[in-house]
Design a protein that fits this description.
homodimer; alpha+beta; about 40% helix; DNA-binding
Chain lengths: ~130, ~130
DNA sequence: ATTTGTAATGTTATATTATAACACCTACTC
DNA sequence: GAGTAGGTGTTATAATATAACATTACAAAT
């Protein structure tokens, strides 16, 4: 079990919004949602997000410039997580894969590269949206 | 051999700058470099970049909001490419790995997810920078 | 050779995402 | 209590990206 140094008010509010959301939220979308709780500036959101992402409680989707709560359905120590992002409906699936993880670690290691974080993001259409003709 | 429908002037200029660069360039850095060639607005760069990235001649680094020329040292048809990005010196290594690629395709396929593009970006320190004490 | 379709261009304006800098506060340690 | 490490609130600004519109270039088809 990892320590969970309790969150400050701002961090907790941001995390709650992310958890309640059905998809990724941008920092500014979060800001708008949190105005009623006294948030007034982007930095309040960005600072909370920095803490949350460092703690692994939230993830940043680099290709979207948006954030999601961690789904938690993978090992606690897994810190290489992949995402499948539907370009139509915005739905995001989070998953971890040791083979992929090992393979990338390996490639990096063999070159003396010290990895700190890794982003893996698959863009496309989820099953439901792929069915639709458009 | 894939067709290579020749590039327009703007596209060629942008690609040349990317190829000449020692590291990733932002769209605005490209714009500044290309002002002497008549570029005046961000869109001129972004449009050229869209064509180049779609053609696989350049890549967008999502976690950096920047662009690099394709190194070309992987198979022509490989469209799942990974990057190791040094946070200290900015150096970027590009590589392709079929195991990783297959594994991700597989995960997606098993869920009916139709992948269109995938970003894999490892952030950290390259061998040279990892040696330094700081 | 003209028509037609597709994509690229140039331009202005604006939207979106992210950080710098500073003053103050809070909680904890020594 | 002094020191310190991180969090907060605020204003201002930087950096990244796209919308909308009029025009132009070019290749394929007739």
């Amino acid at each position: 079990m990892a320590e969970s140094p309790k969150l400050t008010r701002n961090q907790r509010l941001v995390l709650e919004k992310l958890e309640a959301a059905s998809g990724p939220l941008s920092a500014y979308a979060l800001l708008d949602e949190l105005r009623e709780h006294g948030f007034r500036a982007p930095l309040q959101v960005y600072r909370a997000l920095r803490v949350l992402t460092n703690a692994g409680k939230a993830h940043r989707l680099e290709s979207l410039n948006a954030f999601v709560a961690c789904c938690g359905s993978h090992g606690e120590d897994t810190d290489m997580v992949a995402f499948a992002i539907c370009d139509d409906c915005g739905h995001v699936s989070e998953f971890a894969d040791d083979v992929v993880s090992d393979r990338l670690q390996n490639w990096a290691g063999s070159r003396g590269f010290e990895a700190s974080t890794t982003a893996i993001e698959i863009r496309g259409k989820c099953r439901d949206c792929a069915r639709v003709v458009n």
